[in-house]
Amino acid sequence: MLQCIGIRRETKDKTQSRTPLSPDQVRRLVSDHGIRVVVEPWERRVFADEEYRAAGAEVSDHQESCNIIFGVKEIAPEYLADGKTYCFFSHTVKGQSYNMPMLQSIMDRGITLLDYEMVTDDQGRRLIYFGDYAGYAGMVDGLWALGRRLDHEGMSNPFSHIRYATEYTGLSETREALGVSAAQIRQDGLDPRLVPFVCGFTGYGHVSKSAQSLFDLLPVETIAASDLESFMQRGRFSNKCVYKVVFSKPDLYEPVKRGDTFDANSFRNEPSAFKCVFERYVPHLTMVVNGIYWEPRFPRLLTKSFMRRWFPSAQNPRLRIIADITCDVDGSIEMTVKETNADNPVFVYEPASETIRDGWEGAGPVILAVDKLPTELPLEASQAFGDFLLPWVPTLANIDFTQPLDQLHLPESWGRALIVHNGILAPRYKHLQKFIDKENLR
Predict the structure, then answer these.
(1) Which of 128, 377, 400, 423 could cysteine-pair with 110, CB 3.0–4.6 Å?
(2) pTM for this entry
C-alpha cells in the first residue's frame, strides 16, 4: 500500500536500541505528508512504543500493508516477509560471506532491498549514516579501555574515571568527562612511563573526524606522520599534553615499484601495486584509532605476522590500545578476529601465541572491536540518522516497488542503493552472485 511505511524491531543483537526514525520525525510524516506509519513494538528501542502512538503511528506486529519497511541492522531470514521492500544496512556489497545466506533468502523470496550505505551523491559521498556516532562512541570506549589497561599495569592515569559510552546519558556528559581528563593532564601530567602519549588516527571520513573531535578536547599537540620518527629520536616530550598523528593515504601506502610516487587514482584502481607502510609507525604509537574504509583488495594496515615479529621482542612496547572502529573481521587490522559488543567489548591479542583473551589483561594490545558503536549513544544517533533519512521518506513511500526496474523512478542517489529488486540483483550488483555461489558451494 502506497503512503504506508513500517519501522521494524531490531532482532540482530540484544544490545541494539537504535531506530531509523524518531517519534518527532514520525509525527512530521503523519501530519505533513499524510503517511501511515506502522511501528513494530519493541521494549529495547530508545524511544518507547507509547511515544510513537502519541506521534500518530500505529504500534503493531502486522506490517503486511507497508509499502517499505525501514530498519537499522541486518535481518535474519526468519524475520523477512515474502515480496516486501526493506531498507537497512545489509553489509553485503563487499560480498561479506556471513551475510550471503541472508542475501540468497532475499532473492529467493522476491524481496526488494535498499541499503543506506550506498545512498550517495555524485561524488560518492554517503548521505545517510551513523558514522559520527561510531566515532564518538569508539573514542570514548577506546579511552575507557586505555584507563582499564593502565590501571592493570599499576599506572596512575587521567583516564581511570572514563566510563564506557553506554554509561553516559549523551555526548555532553562524555565531553565533560574528557574535560576532567584534560584538566588532570595539564595539572599533574602523565606518568613518565606513558610519555610521550601518541595516538594515531586513520581515515578521512565522519568516523575519524568525530573521534578526533573528542580526542581534541584533551591538551593536544599534532605531529605530521613524516615527522614522527624524528620527533621520537629527539626525545623532547611533554608530560602535560598528548600527541596526535593523522595518517593520510600517502603516509600509509607506497608503490611496490621503486621510484614511483603515490597516486590516489592508481591506488584505487590497482591497490595490489602498493604496499602498506603503517607498520613503520606502530612502535611509536600508544593508541591506534582505526576509521579507514577497507576492502579485501586493499593491503592491510596491521598484520599478525608483523605483530608476531615486533611485539614479543620489543622492550616495553608502547602500543596499548587498538580502537578498531572500522571493525572488519580479519580486515585492515588482522588481529580483529571477532566482533564484540557492549557486554564484552574488548579482548587482548597476544602476538607470541596468536591467541586472544577477553578483557584488558594479557601480553599484547587491547582490541576494541564493537560493530554497533552508534547504538551506545542511541538517542542522539537515532535523531541524527532520522534527520538524514526523513526528507527521502515521502518519495520512497509513494514508489510502487513491484513495478519493473525501469519504471521505479527512484531518486538517483537511491538508485545506487537498490541491491535487489523483486528477488533479482540490480545491474550494478550482479557481481555479488559469485559470492553467493561461493557460499552455496561450501
Answers:
(1) 423
(2) 0.86
